[in-house]
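hey all, quick one before standup. I had two proteins in the batch that finished overnight and I want to keep them in one place so we stop losing track of which output belongs to which input. First protein below, input sequence then structure tokens straight from the run.
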Amino acid sequence: MHRITRFSLIAALAAISLPVFGAVRGTVAVVPTVNASGEKWVEFKQRQAAMIDDWEVTHLPAAGYALTPRDDVRSAVRALALDMTDEENWRRSVVLEIGKKAGAEFVLFCAITSTEQKLQKRPFYEDKEGRTDVRVWLMDTRTGEALLTGKTFTGRSGGNRVSLDNKGSERQIQAAANAVRDATRDFLAPYKAK
């Protein structure tokens, strides 16, 4: 019984320390995020997409995944003559082909489809909550297995708190990253993204 407990402890520590000691769990091609939310404010749309891209670049390596160089991913998109802002290209086969062409083991693509802010009226204050819907594709290019294939995740930020900076647009931007965090939770485990 003592050996089983010791083995379980060692196995758990090995799984948790995998990213810490530099063992790579695989390479991920991160296709640049597309914002197709219909929002008219261009700078806001760019910041929202950049927030997701920054989140991916920060948390995937922290979880033990190596990132395929962005230039390789962009070259793959160009070589396949794709316009990822066109919804017709948001298909499993297309995203999978980008990952293979980029030479990655996994491919991740996110598209923001809608975003809004909602005013929360509380007894003594008003608060804004940002909400963003993000469709996520995550596939294993070696097997063709889809871990996520266009599933929509709704990210939320704010609500139920008092803050000095009560800008709904900032909360919508954070909500986009929160949607991707929720979508990739199982893929990143045991790493816990914030």
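OK second protein, same deal, sequence then tokens:
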Amino acid sequence: MSVFFRHRLFLLALLLALPWAGPVCAETALESVRITSRLDLNSILISGVDIVFFYDDSIAGTEPMTAFSWYSRTRELRETRASAFDLVNTVIPQGFDSASPPLPARHRDAVRVLVFSEHQNSQSTAFDITAMTRVLIEIDQFGLLVSER
């Protein structure tokens, strides 16, 4: 077998093995998030939206996380596991129109990205936006609407 042929055979084997080698690209495709309000500008509602980028499956898990479980554990997680997640918090004051919060530098490495709101029912499950690219979060009197733009 010639060196040329062995080299080509090696390249072919490498190309065939790549799909089985696991992901070589980012975990999430998320590019941007836009938060808008459908509320009357004069309505009195002070709330917040948390976009949480988890880099460790042991925290994010696969079971649905409720707003209550997130907000009750936030302080503990910040103290004990701060490097395992990034939190982007956007305050929603009276008269809020819209915002595009900055994403963390390592956001593409997140294994799971969840959205919580203080405006939600405490037993509401988080919105999982991990697989979305351009996310639109709309706030109305009933809670949040999350969709892809």
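Flagging for whoever picks this up: The chain has three helices and eight strands. Residues 3-25 have pLDDT under 50 and may be disordered.
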